[in-house]
Amino acid sequence: MKVIASTGREEIALVYIMELEGGKLVECVESIQPPIPRQDKWVLLVSTMHGCPVGCAMCDAGGFYAGKPSADGILAQIDFLVRKRYPDGCIPCKQFKIQFARMGEPALNPGVLEALERLPGLYQAPGLMPSISTVAPVANRGFFERLLEIKQDYYTGGHFQLQFSLHTTDDALRDTIIPIRKWTLAQMAAYGERFYAPGDRKITLNFALAQRNPLDDGVLAGLFSPEKFLIKITPVNPTYKAAENGLVSYINPQTPERQDKIVEALRHRGYEVIVSIGELEENQVGSNCGQYLRTHLEATQKLEQGYTYPVVETMM
Questions:
Q1: What are 195-213's pLDDT values in tens digits?
Q2: Which of 14, 85, 171, 313 has its CA 20 to 30 A from that of 41?
Q3: Ramachandran area for residue 259 (φ above 0: left; ψ -120 to 50: alpha; else beta)
Q4: Which fold has domain 2-313?
Q5: What are the sequence ranges of the domains in the chain?
Q6: For the chain, what percentages of helix, strand and coil (3-state, to nearest 5) are there?
């Protein structure tokens, strides 16, 4: 494993481009969420694929696909980030969150399951909380069945986060945004009913919400129990794919109060709603969801809103 480039700022987020087995590249990230100190919450994002075959309409990681890293390749990213900051493997953070969500669809790589099984034995980390973010591809039902078993065996009591990425409640539009065969909303709801157990974190329904993309509270209320699911609404981050597809964020991070109507309707239905803006500087670093540094490095016309931090080539 070699680190070939990095960018970012210690006080926000650091992104690393890494070369794994066979010379293939991945990216991984470590970040904090000011004003929350690292000892309270430390977040890692690791890649589960070399690129991504899905090609979501707002994600720069979907421009190519070159296979799947093994569990060893996934864990190598985590171990690099951990040992750089905590060489003895003792991680004192109250919440040590590992998001399998930097690059790739985790449900299409069985190595993710092996990594989840091995992870608790690798560090002294009482705050360990893996997070799987998925569009729920139909191609791998077995992944989700095994994921349920692993959660029950290793990550009970709120130590696991499952997130379904929906982006709209309009089925036809969702097919355009996420161009892969995937579960229906009803199938997601049925699985969530089985996955959730008392003491678990609620399952997140994530919407990177673009203008003119419906988020119908009535559709959600007919399928997803507010006792077991919560709603997260995020901006469409400034990516090359979002610009190419004409996606304009419904959320303006400068004026988040514009979302009151949607949020109020969802809360009226009994949902916990998170409007997740985050640090705007992460767009400049390129560490936000959907941002992929290799796309920026290869682009001829650069984005003005994102990826403005310099990328430093290195060898580690």
A1: 999 999 999 999 999 998 9
A2: 313
A3: alpha
A4: TIM Barrel (3.20.20)
A5: 2-313
A6: 35, 25, 45
